[in-house]
Structures are given as structure tokens and as C-alpha cells.
Amino acid sequence: MAAADDRTPTARAVRADIRAAAVAGGFGRLEFLDVRRELDRWGPCQVFGQILTSARPARAAAAWAVAVLEDRGWKANGPIEDEAGVGWVLQRKGWSLSAVFGVASAETVAAGLPPGQRDRAKDFKGVIFEGTGRGCTGSRDGAASPSP
């Protein structure tokens, strides 16, 4: 039998890693959204969390959050920086996690939404964590719930 560290993390475990990173960065209130209804065709394990901030997140805080993820077993690629912010792609045993810290115009946000939701897009300042796992056990635990 494989040790716990050798198994693909569950969606719940990935959310715990994201919570730890968000706390370390001091960004504010983290909320996980239930995007699986739209993404079920991709696989059983998706995690989407966001933090709305009043200003563009500081790069030092973003780097600190990613360092916490690395301490929890994630391998980071990046950073990738542009005028909108900074981001990393992290990998961990069957999971890919994008961590993006920055700002986006309503137009940019709308481009990533399904057609019926584009007219509701707003300017964004904050943090987005988007993860997709392969071979993990999925459940809806924590869906659409703010983190304490």
C-alpha cells in the first residue's frame, strides 16, 4: 500500500493547501466556487478559489504564498509577470494549480466567462487559484463556501 504522500491529493487536500497559501500571503477572505457543474466533462477534480482585494496584490506576498505551497509539496514554475500581475503554475502528483495575483479589466474577465455570463463581468483585483487534478477522489466538499 502506498504511503499517504504517494497518493494523488484529494480536492479537499488541495483546498487546504490553497487556504494555507492565502493565509500566508495575508490577502483576505478566500472563497471557493463550485465550478464543477460546468467542468464535469474535464474530470472529477477541479478547485477554484478567489480572493477579492482592494488593490493589486503585492508581489512579495504572492511569492510568500507560493513558497508555502512549495513547502506543502508543490513544484512551482514561474513566476510569469506582466503589467497585470504575476502568476505561477504549480504541479503536485496529478494536479496542476495556477496561482495568479493581479488585476484584470471587465473586458478581460468577460473573455474567460461562458457567453451567458459575460455581461456581468466586473474589473478584478485579487488572487485566483485554479486547479485540475487527474486520478483524485472528487467530492463537492467545500463548494461555494468561504474559508474561515
Characterize the structure shown.
The protein is of the alpha+beta class and 148 residues long. The chain has 4 helices and 6 strands; from the N terminus they run H-E-H-E-H-E-E-E-H-E. The chain has helices spanning 11-25, 36-39, 59-71, 106-111; strands at residues 30-33, 45-52, 75-82, 85-92, 95-104, 124-133. It has a 6-stranded antiparallel sheet with strand order 1-2-6-5-4-3. Helix 1 runs antiparallel to helix 3. It is globular and about 45 Å long. Residues 138-148 have low confidence and may be disordered.
| Strand line-up in the sheet with most strands | 1-2-6-5-4-3
Q: Count the strands? A: 6
Calculate the mean pLDDT score and round it: 84
* Poorly predicted runs of 5 or more residues: 138-148
The major β-sheet equals: 6 strands, antiparallel
C-alpha-based Rg, rounded: 15 Å
Query: Separation of termini?
Result: 34 Å
General form: globular
Question: SSE string, helix = H, strand = E?
Answer: HEHEHEEEHE
User: Beta-sheet strand percentage?
Assistant: 25-35%
Count the helices. How many?
4
The percent of residues in helical segments reads 25-40%
Oligomer: single chain
* Estimated structural class: alpha+beta
List keywords for this structure.
disordered C terminus; alpha+beta; 148 residues
Task: Please render the helix and strand layout as text.
Elements: H1 11-25, E1 30-33, H2 36-39, E2 45-52, H3 59-71, E3 75-82, E4 85-92, E5 95-104, H4 106-111, E6 124-133
Antiparallel strand pairs: 1-2, 2-6, 3-4, 4-5, 5-6
Helix pairs in contact: 1-3
